[in-house]
Amino acid sequence: MKTLIIIDVQNDFMPGGPLEVPRGNMIVPVINKVQSYFDLVVATQDWHPKNHKSFASSHFGKKPFDRIVLNGVNQTLWPDHCIQGSPGAELYQDIESNRIAAIFRKGMDPEVDSYSGFYDNNRQLSTGLSGYLKDKGISEVHFCGLAADICVYYSILDSILEGFYATLIEDASSPLFPDKFDDIKCELAKLGVHIITSSDLHPK
Ligand code: VGL
Ligand code: ZN
Questions:
Q1: Who's near 188: CB < 8 A, 6+ residues apart?
Q2: 204 pLDDT above the threshold of 80
């Protein structure tokens, strides 16, 4: 069963949002085009309580993109984003959502960030995504969404650890820090991740 996982295509990550990803809106038509090539489409949503410890605003004297150690793990501090129930946390309005079978939310524990759609950054709390896919007999997953170098990247790493074959659809994903993305792609390729563009995919 061909499966597409759409990571965090939410308003706050779009150009003009508090944690804008360059070209974040440009990937949306590509994602919409390829959805019909897949038998199963699932999505993730960054979904933080308003006092989340990954926000610079939760730490006196800190500013966005500072780095701290949070409960023993390195943490980049972010601008407030994707607050539960806020308009910024909603899926971007142009993303076609009719074919999205399930949405897995993450980052709900105020003490722990969660980049991956599978596990939190401490690798303690599962979203259930792995079990959901395995229950359906899925062994291979395609990834797209935002940000390519953060939540998509960590989701791909976890998918490999969970035993899935992973593919990144590069033009359906966009990085927060484009300068460092070549290194990430190299690392993923070495791990056996297929990196393709949407033109390599074909309608069912
Ligand atoms: C993300 C930073 C903080 C992402 C989420 O979706 O890539 N990045 N929270
Ligand atoms: Zn977040």
A1: 153, 156, 166, 168, 195
A2: no
Tell me the residue range of the domain where 156 lies: 3-48+87-200
Active-site pick, 12, 144, 149, 151:
151
Q: Report yes or no on 77 lying in a domain.
A: no
The total number of structural domains that make up the chain: 1
Q: Do the domain assignments include residue 184?
A: yes
Per-residue DSSP letters for 54-119? TBGGGSTT--TT-EEEETTEEEE-B-S--BTTSGGGSBPTTS--TTEEEEEEE--STT----SSSB
Rounded distance from Cα 203 to ligand 2 centre (Å): 33
pLDDT tens digits, 75-90: 999 999 999 999 999 9
